[in-house]
Amino acid sequence: MHVNKKVLISGASIAGPTLAFWLSKYGFDVTIVERSKSLRMGGQNLDIRGAGRAVARMMGIEKEILAANTGEIGLQFVDSDNKVKAAFPSDGAGSFTSEAEILRGDLVNILYNHTKNDVEYVFGKHITAINQHDNKVNVTFNDDNKEAYDLLIAADGVRSTTRALIFGDEPKVKFTGLYNAWYTIPKIETDTQWARWYTATGSRVMLIRPDNHGTVRASFSFLSDDADIQKLSAGEQKKILKEKLSGAGWEEKRLTDEIEKSDDVYFDGISQIHAPRWFNGRTGMIGDAAYCPTPLTGMGTTLAIVGAYLLAAELSRHNKHEDAFIAYEKCMRPFVEKVQSLPPGVPWLAHPKSKFGVAVVNTVAGILASSFVKRIGKLFESKNKDVTKDEIELPDFKTV
């Protein structure tokens, strides 16, 4: 019998349901509270790598993830005339496309279906106050209802409000100087199963990717030192997006028109979360709320899944939650710090200001995609693409 049996998780995206999956396997009584009135099914492509794939396999959901693949066959770098300057097929060396490429909403749905019978989901509700005691944590919700739990874990994303209730402004949000907008747009004849990357002058990039729902996923990113743009209203943000798209060329008009039509534009400053501690008494945080590495790393989903698996395992094998938290952080923090170390020049090198800079990006991409470089790359390519070296060791904890 676990001492800390009753657990509340805030957030029904990826880290939260994954944690709930494992905790329920270990015999915990788990409730997930989600601010949205239903599952948030929107979002763009996610890439599940290495240790994340290993955990998905242990959960019995790997085949479902692969079956829900977006269908993307690789990435093309194109110019303003849509001429291909470089191509990286999904089955080639140095590919940008993962075998386990899945839309965020599809992964959320898979996780929900594998937890809904063992975990209580409460939608349209969020935490407004937290009161800790030696033997419990009292939680107040937005409907003024109060409930006591043994543990509370925030898993509600990079802009987590639960994190602020637990830690105040102690965790630091490190803005990278890059803004990104993601939204779903109708598919047209020129769209293929290739993802297409277009670099424009003025430090701007457009990316159009296929999905498995009969639409396509568009994103537009640009560099800016103004950290306050992310604080503006949705209407003001859309206005800025259209201004930034102006004069970019390629699919500029299409993406601009769809911004006004779309009701699922997600716009945010790309930031990392750096927290000196992830736990405070009987409360804590995981996933993007605790250690968002940014989409630039391609490892956010893997960190969320692996972190959830390890935290549940440590809680299952320690009688005291304090000991579990210490063991978890000892194992997880080095992995997080490695992932959060962005390569030099990211994101600036991929967002050049001048025509010359754009030409350099496309030329370098062309060289990297050349048959000679690909042949060299294959000599060093792992026979098992699922394995990422020096990532993190995953102990095989036995469930009850």
UniProtKB/TrEMBL annotation:
Keywords of the record: Monooxygenase, Oxidoreductase
Family matches, as InterPro entries: FAD-bd, FAD/NAD-bd_sf, FAD_aromatic-hydroxylase
Record flagged with keyword Oxidoreductase: yes
Segments forming domain FAD-binding: 6-339
Keyword Nucleotide-binding: no
GO molecular function, one term: monooxygenase activity
Pfam families, per the entry: FAD_binding_3
UniProt cross-references to SUPFAM superfamilies, sorted A to Z: FAD/NAD(P)-binding domain
Superkingdom, natural source: Bacteria
Protein name (record): FAD-binding monooxygenase
